[in-house]
């Protein structure tokens, strides 16, 4: 690839400010579109006055198995940070299962041997849906069939984390009921004892991320390991009861439950058991993994703390090697944009609030949580509030922006990257009014950053990792809005298949920004090389081509 130039000038903008508006996609249709319906004078100004294009942010363009897979933060930030495509977790696990390789791996063999040697129970914990963001039920089903018919494992317990965030907001029974039948079939045909042990909403137990709320993990420990909590005869009974008691509650927020019979909880985790955490994505897997693995774990008291063999679906942190044992090799994402920029001595700042802090650090750097170069990089985390975000849709946008403006005005950084979580985190709640305010909060902050960038003579890039807030209603196959019993639109909490904007606001006066029409199917993987162009550096050969004309 040819080196970029800036019309002969060697000047580098100070800084390049790179904004990820998490979960803010582009969609023509205004209905249920919290982005189009928000008051966004700054975004509107950018779209009227700056060059921009639309980028593909889902499916095969970001390394997912198919184009019906919506985008997500992991694959989005991986793609932006690494400038090229990697087959992602969802795809790699599919392949490992289809080839049978997963069952020959060391991780799987040791799990089976441990439980067999101790006459223990084999447990699965994970996100119970086909959302394909953190997990997929097909993976769980394949492992259960193999355990029952190939390994002849007599006793299995499944701890189900109810989704409602990557799939329909109240779809839990659509997964639970067929799964109960699937387990009954296994039990009859293999003369086995496979059952659901308990579970709870994914935003209540176990699946915390970036240490935003360890209490969720403690509550998960009590549910899965101790078998403590409100007891029900079945998962169906638990779900129906909680829905009756909490009208309007959505699956991700359902309280924890344990399944019990005459002799108590059916699925406690005990000495000699094997445990698989079957999520392939790491952010919401690392904390529970640490609780299972760390000898001198200090965050909460693990009571009880049984001697088990634990494995994750994948290696979640490829630098810290978490977990120690896993079933499928993760993508090896190397030569990321930051590795190159640090090697060239550029000074970098990354910032978000807790909920997305790891997105601009860990995901951006190819699923490595550490810094690349201590001396050149500054990572700033603004602590997120522990609140339902539909009640505080502005989140920490203003605080992030305060810190970004200080960074711009310091003239210390070559590139400042930041993530505004609002469109995504509030989009996931399904509350339209809040999502609109979330987008407005981002826009208000954008205005401040635009002014500061202009003052500094910098370049501002505004884009997103995938859509969410621009599509807040469920639609049927024909595109019609699905409605509830009173005619109200059914809320959509998940991400979308929509493209995202990529806008360049160049106040540096060093170049003419023009998109190159020859770039076919532009997507998130084209961004990294474009940043090199904007920084007046030659993009690495191995990267997907930059979006701009030289
Ligand atoms: O983990 C989550 O909150 C959702 O499953 C996906 O959201 P994200 O990919 O934007 O983090
Ligand atoms: Mn995201
Ligand atoms: Mn999201």
Describe what this molecule looks like in 3D.
With 550 residues, the chain is an alpha/beta fold. It folds into two domains: 235 residues, 3-Layer(aba) Sandwich (Alkaline Phosphatase, subunit A), CATH 3.40.720.10; 239 residues, 2,3-Bisphosphoglycerate-independent phosphoglycerate mutase, substrate-binding domain. It is built from 15 helices and 16 strands. Strands 3, 4, 5, 6, 7, 8, 9, 10 and 11 form a nine-stranded mixed β-sheet that branches. A seven-stranded mixed β-sheet has the order 2-16-15-1-14-12-13, with helices on both faces. Helix 5 packs parallel to helix 6 and helix 12 runs parallel beside helix 14. The protein is globular and about 75 Å long. The site of one manganese (II) ion has 6 residues, from loops.
Architecture blueprint of SSEs:
Blueprint: E1 16-21, H1 41-49, E2 52-55, H2 73-82, H3 89-98, H4 106-117, E3 122-127, H5 137-149, E4 155-162, H6 172-190, E5 193-201, H7 214-226, E6 231-232, H8 235-245, E7 257-261, E8 264-265, E9 274-277, H9 286-293, E10 309-314, E11 326-328, H10 337-343, E12 348-353, H11 354-363, E13 377-382, H12 397-410, E14 415-420, H13 422-427, H14 432-456, E15 459-463, E16 500-506, H15 527-534
Parallel strand pairs: 1-14, 1-15, 3-4, 3-9, 4-5, 6-7, 9-10, 10-11, 12-13, 12-14
Antiparallel strand pairs: 2-16, 5-7, 7-8, 15-16
